[in-house]
Write a structure and sequence with these properties.
The complex is a heterodimer. The relative contact order of chain A is 0.17. A 7-stranded mixed sheet of chain A has the order 2-8-7-6-5-3-4, with helices on both faces. Chain A has 2 domains: 117 residues, Aspartate Aminotransferase, domain 1 (Alpha-Beta Complex); 246 residues, Aspartate Aminotransferase, domain 2 (3-Layer(aba) Sandwich), CATH 3.40.640.10. Chain A has 12 helices and 13 strands. Chain A is globular and about 70 Å long. Helices cover 36% and strands 14% of the residues of chain A. By secondary structure, chain A is α/β, with parallel strands linked by helices. Chain B is α+β, with helices and mostly antiparallel strands. Chain B has one domain. Helices cover 15% and strands 34% of the residues of chain B. Chain B has a 6-stranded antiparallel sheet, with no helix packed on it. Chains A and B meet through helix 10 and strand 12 of A and strand 5 of B.
């Protein structure tokens, strides 16, 4: 099996992840409470490693969550958006951003402006600027598209957003682990991320960075393992936004992945990026195969989308997986609006996404498989 | 070849019309030909695991690979039950 569906979830995981998860489940639990351990707890270590990854000074601004969707909901609901508020976002967003926004609109009357793509396939900056002129409480933007891999110029977007007085939310689900995600450099007040994609950690892990100048209302309150004497949920970060028993095995695994990521031998992002480029180069030569958004000037994470003449997207995905053993993803990839912008609505694309562990031989075999679908092998 | 179960397929698309059909035996090149009466059948014998797909004017679509005991079926919204029956009749005792 050739696994090229890392944009959905990474496989294999980083070295050390499986052992760390296993140990967390088989070793006796540590002392109760989150701060009672003599040594730094798993959660603290994970938080510190994420802070390093994000180049954030205070690890307490990192809230550990089950993943990006949770983090984005935490941010959007925690901001208390109501009818008087306006959110500017983009067509490149995943449903993990779009659906909470639509629910806010339905439930509270929050208004939403969605910025499309320009002729070059990048976000239309003029339309973005125009959208801000009508006022914005929040700008929510995807760092990298999970359909095309294109990295949005969020530093520019967020600079304009701040000038307009908006809070900024970055969805780094597809970018963290592949390209630098430094909130201060990018001007991101909130950064939602997941542990199981580019970071090569376990599913059920992720987080939300919250700028020190920003307070979010908690979405959940309850047990914290600390300050049980208080009637109300503790207000200190990160406990303020973390309630209930955390996923310790998952975060032990994520910490292991982050340790590997930070290691000197780590060539992951460069390898994955090179494999994606090789894949793109291979597919581009095939008659009957159309790469979706193939502007070579764009910065990208390792995601390649395409369609094949004579094949519906789901047939192509099924045949690649079941006949050729190439695990891929076909369809809308939970990001419906970008397909309307790219002309791939309503069926979507076939998506291949390599990782740090993908080999050149696997890429060659995947290209060969697509060539045979297209009838040009 | 008998149908033993059907399971709905939920994926990135509207899964209400997509089903996996499970059979009591695996698909063989000969068994694939059973589908020919329903519409345009294509058989890709040169794929590592031979692949077949059926496309019908009614909107019925079927795809699968030889050696597996299942296939994926997309039923159209219009006249769905009639078309489902016509497909399942191919495998009636």
């Amino acid at each position: 099996m050739i696994y090229l569906n890392n944009a959905a979830t990474s496989y294999p995981k980083a070295p050390g992840v499986v052992d760390a998860v296993r140990s967390a489940l088989t070793d006796a639990p540590g002392p109760p409470g989150r701060t009672a351990a003599e040594d730094r707890s798993t959660l603290d270590e994970c938080r510190d490693l994420i802070a390093e990854q994000l180049a954030v000074r205070d690890p307490h601004r990192i809230v550990l969550t089950p993943g990006s969707t949770y983090s984005i909901n935490l941010a959007l609901w925690g901001l208390g958006l109501r009818a008087a508020h306006r959110v500017v976002t983009t067509v490149t967003e995943h449903n993990s951003v779009l659906r909470p926004l639509y629910h806010l609109r339905e439930r509270h009357g929050t208004s939403i402006a969605i910025v499309g793509l320009g002729a070059d396939g990048a976000l239309d900056m003029d339309r973005f600027k125009t959208a801000l002129e009508s006022g914005a409480t929040l700008v929510a933007a995807n760092h990298a598209s999970n359909v095309t891999g294109r990295v949005n110029d969020v530093a520019c977007l967020f600079s304009m957003a701040h000038e307009a007085g908006a809070v900024t939310l970055l969805d780094a689900s597809q970018s963290l682990g592949h390209v630098p995600v430094h909130p201060e450099e990018l001007g991101a007040d909130l950064v939602a991320f997941t542990g199981h994609k580019g970071l090569l950690g376990p599913p059920g892990t992720g987080g939300l960075y919250v700028d020190p100048n920003l307070d979010l209302e908690p979405m959940l309150v309850g047990g914290t393992g600390v300050r049980s004497d208080l009637m109300l949920h503790p207000a200190d970060m990160p406990t303020r936004l973390e309630a209930g028993t955390p996923n310790l095995p998952g975060f032990a695994g994520l910490a292991a992945a982050l340790r590997w990521t930070a290691g000197p031998e780590r060539q992951g992002p460069a390898v994955a990026s090179a494999m994606a480029e090789r894949l793109r180069d291979g597919l581009r030569t095939l008659r009957g195969v159309r790469l979706v958004d193939d502007d070579s000037r764009a910065q990208r994470v390792p995601v390649v989308s395409f369609v094949v003449d004579g094949w519906s997207v789901d047939e192509a995905g099924y045949a690649l997986a079941c006949s050729f053993g190439v695990q891929c993803r076909s369809g809308l990839h939970c990001a419906p609006l970008i397909h309307q912008a790219l002309g791939t609505w309503p069926h979507g694309t076939v998506r291949l996404s390599p990782s740090a562990f993908t080999t050149t031989e696997e890429i060659a075999r995947a290209v060969e498989a697509v060539a045979r679908l297209a009838g040009c092998a | 070849m008998r149908i033993v179960a059907t399971t709905p397929v939920q994926d990135c698309f509207d899964g209400s019309t997509v089903f996996t059909y499970w059979f009591d035996t695996v698909w063989t090149p000969d068994l694939v030909q059973v589908l020919r009466c329903l519409g345009e059948l294509e058989y890709f014998s040169d794929f590592p695991r031979p692949f077949f797909r059926l496309r019908c004017g009614s909107g019925l679509q079927v795809k699968g690979v030889v050696g597996e005991d299942n296939c994926q079926v997309i039923l159209p919204r219009a006249e769905r039950e009639v078309i489902r029956e016509s497909f399942e009749r191919c495998f009636a005792p």
